Every structure is written in structure tokens, then in C-alpha cells.
Amino acid sequence: MEEKAFHLFFSCTFSRSCWQKIGIEWRENLHFFQMIKRAQQDFQHWFFMEVFIIAAWHIWKHRNNLIFEGRRPTIRDWTSKFIDEARLQAHRIKDGKKQDFLSWVDSVRL
DSSP alpha helices (H): ranges in 22-94? Predict the structure, then answer.
């Protein structure tokens, strides 16, 4: 079965649950870039792109774990990896904005 990137990142049950867990809603009826822009506006934090990239990266890694290692993905495991990666990436954020980002990360629940 051919896998489509849009389905993997936005439409499949697992990825939809991941995005929901971090408060990002996708309006799939919009064109791709409009969908991203709308999600960014709805998210209402300056660090949307950081969150988007980390989340998509870990959806991809969980997909690879399923395909190459046969490990079934769980939302709890994805969330834990997402939180760990976000905390790791926080060092790249200027000190004046870092605490805002880390406070948001701490609000994400397993």
C-alpha cells in the first residue's frame, strides 16, 4: 500500500491524536499552506514552528519504528519523546523567550 505524506502527518488516527495532544488542530479542507497558517494562528504562541517541526519529526520516527522494528506507536511514548526533544531544543531559544516555551512544554501532559 502506498503511503501518502499528508495522511501520515495529518490524517491518520495516530498523528491526529498527537496533534490534539499538543493543541494543534488541522483544517484539512484548506490548501496545505493555508492549513499551516490557520493552525499557526489558532495556536497563538510565537513558537508554533518549533512545536510543529518537533512533533512532525517524532511522528516520522514513530512511523519508522513501526515499519523497521515492528514497534506499535503509543501516544504516551510519542508525547514523552516530544517533551524530551522540546526541552533539548529549548537551548536554542534566546533567554528572554525560553521560559515561555518551557512553561508551555511543561503544560503538555503524558
Answer: 32-43, 48-69, 75-89
Query: Any idea where the domains of the chain sit in the sequence?
Result: 5-107
d(CA 17, CA 27): 14
Residues 32-88 have pLDDT tens digits of: 999 999 999 999 999 999 999 999 999 999 999 999 999 999 999 999 999 999 999
- What is residue 33's three-state secondary structure? helix
Task: State the Cα–Cα distance between residues 54 and 38, nearest whole angstrom.
Answer: 18
Do 46 and 96 meet the contact criterion of CB atoms below 8 Å apart?
A: no
What pTM was estimated for this model as a whole? 0.93
